[in-house]
Amino acid sequence: MVLGSTISAEIGDTSRVQILLLVNGSASSVTARTRVLIQTALAEHHSVQLAMTSRRGHASRLARGAAATGTDIVAVLGGDGTLNEAANGLAGTECALAPLPGGSTNVFARTIGLADEPLEATNQLVAAIAANSIESVGLGEVEGRYFLFHCGSGFDAAVVEQVERRSTLKRYAGHPLFIWAGVDTWLRHYDRTKPRMTVRHKHGGVDDSYFTVVLNTNPYTYLGSRPLSLAPEATLDRGLSVVALRTLSFSTMTGLLIDLFQGKPLENNDLIHVAHNLTELALTGHDPFPHQLDGDYLGTVKSLKFNWRPQVLRLVKPLSK
Predict the structure, then answer these.
(1) From the CA atom positions of the chain, what is the Rg in Å?
(2) pLDDT tens digit string along 96-136?
């Protein structure tokens, strides 16, 4: 089938599966036309039901309900926040998650090899379903909630908070809004004069982190088409990685960004703490600190306990090129 020369795929001789297409109509890249094209392409070979999210937490409830009624796959057209909610609804069930990029950055979808264009990614999804390319993968868990790619505590969570305060601009400004929010937060909205938290894990830790990221996958995010790689060791089939910055000075942040753009790996030194393959770790704040999960701001906390949960989510993965 070809729809406007944008979606085409051959399923071959495979059984029909039950798919819930879960759509966040407010996401940056989601339009009515895109939704219809994707639904039509999936429905050519499979039984597809459509559900639209309407509020925070709705995707978790819809995904959990789909799993309970025997749905095989929940395909999510939305941003990373909607995808995180769906993953939390599906973790521990036999129903598989199938990401489709609909947000401004689409970190997780791109991390597993999907195109950043929704219709092209649908082609990949159709081919993956035909090949039964479904794997059980590990997730990070913090205080009872799962995350797909990372949890940021401190500075980056403060940046996400500033972006979410301007949510109406996010759909149109995208990456420029994040860059502006990062600079504005660094200058005006985050106390850079003292460390915010301690980090503890089996290999040790630090007492003076200003900004900590716990990663389940790599890269940390994308800036345009460029991945910002904090921990290449972080994958879906091994433990968590942690990166803690022990200063937010201008020189350190500038040097860090240059290294990230050049693809240089981060290593332990006097200013950066790095550890990998962790099954447990804990953050304890000197004062309450902000945190975000898969790009969603979740407020301030005094402490966070992390665990890695292996093979807890069934994931539809695109075929290797």
Answers:
(1) 20
(2) 999 999 988 899 999 999 999 999 999 999 999 999 999 99
Beta-strand runs (E) in 148-279: 150-154, 197-201, 204-209, 211-215, 221-223, 226-228, 240-245, 272-278
Q: Do domains 18-132 and 145-309 have the same CATH topology?
A: no
Domain boundary assignment for the chain: 18-132, 145-309
Q: Under a CB-based contact definition with an 8 Å cutoff, are residues 312 and 146 in contact?
A: yes
**Structure token pair of residue 260:** 């990230």
Q: Per residue in 62-92, pLDDT tens?
A: 999 999 999 999 999 999 999 999 999 999 9
For 203-237, b/e burial (b = at least 16 CB within 10 A) is eebbebbbbbbbbbbbbbbbeeeebbbbbeebbbe
* CATH number for the domain running over 145-309: 2.60.200.40
Indicate the pTM of the whole model: 0.90
